[in-house]
């Protein structure tokens, strides 16, 4: 039995998207929000909305007690965390379950096993999933970092063991750069992470594609792969455009990658929706495990567009213990553009009052947005305003529809990066499909 | 005297320099935070920090003066 009432512990576009499926299934949708978000569509569209507190995430969306109190006061039976905020917080998952509510996500143990990137890397290596040469123990001092980088060989990637979203990540091509990257990562770890800063150093892959696999862990214990997403269009190590299928995989490589992703899910007895991220070495034509995200992914709509599967519905059904077999068929091509409140040249944030907001429509066009005209984009949260998703029977058709949609999307007020998409869609490297994670920086150099 | 202004709405996360400090072109004066991103505010010219108009934790609006370099 599905829970009759679902609280979404998130905001913006993802809260709205989850609430939409909750309502479609005839369930009661409960939103929680901060003072800064009171006027946003996700609050208005929910059946019930509870004010958590001030704008600062620590006093609202990250406050476990306030979220649980909202669930109690509204009689919600289940909690969906979305992505970010408390989504990969095992203590929150345990607190939700301890309160007698249904947690819409994987087990806290799976969250913890994958949350520490060094542990995850070691688990995968032991299970036979390919990993890049790197550190098997947390690096806590600069001397160790220098020694490990020398062993692995430059260039290396330096990142925090606990962080995510590209924060604190850096490439080092020599010892001087390593010192700087280690300092950046350590500061990020101290600021965003928990406990002792722990750094992971791995071989850096030049000309890499970032390709990830959507998995679903079913109630009967089987893990199903729902295809891949290519997320190689990035700025500051953060995704801007995603597409599926990946134009950079051979059928053999895709098959190996999907199997590796299923294996990764099986290793942690994964249940629900998760994403296994890989880096593809375009020169060597192989791939290595990057990390696993134990939650719904920002770019999940492209998978939904080609498979016809509503991933949020699957999450709800799996969380409520519904057991069913699942076959996956996919057709066509889908691409997603992340519409950020940032300038399209330097990618600096530019919050502000939205005076004009007109979403494009048309065949194959889906817009998941968190805002509308009259709303204010505030500096407290991430800059994602909307996701422009486009489906086509072929990649060429999807890109052609995307060109029209990007031009028809009108936003005035905050800065926005729509011009970047128009630029990308006329750039040979992107249009040909033969691109890697360096694409955007080459466009801006 | 040159004014260094905020380019966006942001929180002042870190103040790196003090009034009276000598800075060179490109030195970081303060680090702002907006939308989960750290944005360093740099000196456009060398000189002495004559005035520092913000403190850590302040909220600045686009166009607000952060520092005056003389």
From TrEMBL, chain A:
Its EC number is 6.3.4.14. GO terms for molecular function: ATP binding; biotin carboxylase activity; metal ion binding. Keywords: ATP-binding, Biotin, Ligase, Nucleotide-binding. SUPFAM superfamilies: Glutathione synthetase ATP-binding domain-like, PreATP-grasp domain, Rudiment single hybrid motif. PROSITE patterns: ATP_GRASP, BC, CPSASE_2. Coiled coil: none annotated. Residues 2-445 form the Biotin carboxylation domain. This is biotin carboxylase. It comes from Sinosporangium siamense.
UniProtKB/TrEMBL annotation, chain B:
The keyword Glycosyltransferase does not apply. Keywords: Biotin. This is Biotinylated protein TB7.3. It comes from Sinosporangium siamense. It comes from the Bacteria. The keyword S-adenosyl-L-methionine does not apply. Residues 1-70 form the Lipoyl-binding domain.
């Amino acid at each position: 039995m599905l829970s009759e009432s679902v609280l979404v512990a998130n905001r913006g576009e993802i809260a709205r998207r989850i609430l939409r499926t909750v309502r479609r299934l005839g369930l009661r949708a409960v939103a929680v929000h901060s003072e800064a978000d009171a006027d946003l569509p996700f609050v208005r569209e929910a059946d019930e909305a509870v004010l958590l507190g001030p704008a600062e995430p620590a006093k609202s969306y990250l406050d476990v007690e306030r979220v649980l109190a909202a669930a109690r006061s509204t009689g919600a039976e289940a909690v969906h965390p979305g992505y970010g905020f408390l989504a990969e917080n095992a203590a929150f998952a345990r607190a939700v379950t301890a309160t007698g509510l249904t947690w819409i996500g994987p087990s806290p143990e799976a969250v913890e096993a994958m949350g520490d990137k060094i542990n995850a890397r070691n688990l995968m290596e032991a299970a036979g999933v390919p990993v890049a040469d790197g550190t098997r123990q947390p690096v806590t001092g600069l001397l160790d970092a220098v020694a490990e980088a020398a062993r692995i060989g430059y260039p290396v990637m330096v990142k925090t063991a606990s962080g995510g979203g590209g924060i604190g990540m850096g490439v080092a091509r020599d010892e001087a750069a390593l010192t700087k990257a280690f300092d950046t990562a350590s500061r990020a770890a101290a600021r965003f992470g928990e406990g002792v800063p722990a750094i992971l150093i791995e071989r850096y892959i030049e000309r890499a594609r970032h390709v990830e696999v959507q998995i679903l862990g079913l109630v009967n214990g089987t893990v199903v792969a729902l295809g891949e997403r290519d997320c190689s269009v990035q700025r500051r190590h953060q995704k801007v455009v995603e597409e599926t299928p990946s134009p950079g995989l051979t059928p053999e490589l895709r098959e190996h990658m999907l199997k590796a992703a299923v294996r990764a899910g099986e290793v942690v007895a994964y249940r629900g929706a998760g994403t296994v991220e890989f880096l593809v070495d375009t020169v060597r034509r192989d791939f290595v495990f990057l990390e696993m995200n134990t939650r719904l992914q920002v770019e999940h709509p492209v998978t939904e567009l080609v498979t016809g599967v509503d991933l949020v519905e699957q999450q709800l059904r799996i969380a409520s213990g519904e057991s069913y077999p699942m076959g996956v068929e996919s057709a066509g091509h889908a691409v997603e553009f992340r519409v950020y409140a940032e300038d399209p040249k330097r990618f600096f944030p530019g919050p502000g009052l939205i005076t004009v907001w007109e979403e494009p429509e048309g065949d194959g066009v889906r817009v998941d947005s968190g805002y509308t005209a009259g709303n204010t984009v505030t500096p407290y949260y991430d800059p994602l305003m909307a996701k422009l998703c486009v489906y086509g029977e072929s990649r060429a058709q999807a890109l052609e529809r995307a060109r029209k949609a990007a031009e028809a999307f009108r936003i005035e007020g905050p800065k926005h990066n729509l011009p970047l998409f128009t630029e990308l869609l006329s750039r040979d490297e992107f249009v040909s499909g033969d691109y890697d994670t360096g694409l955007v920086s080459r466009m801006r150099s | 005297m040159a004014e260094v202004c905020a380019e966006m709405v942001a929180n002042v996360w870190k103040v790196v320099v003090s009034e009276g400090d000598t800075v060179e072109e490109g030195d970081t004066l303060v680090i702002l935070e907006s939308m989960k991103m750290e944005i360093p505010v740099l000196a456009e010219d060398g000189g002495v920090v004559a005035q520092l108009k913000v403190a850590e934790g302040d909220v600045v609006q686009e166009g607000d003066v952060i520092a005056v370099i003389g």
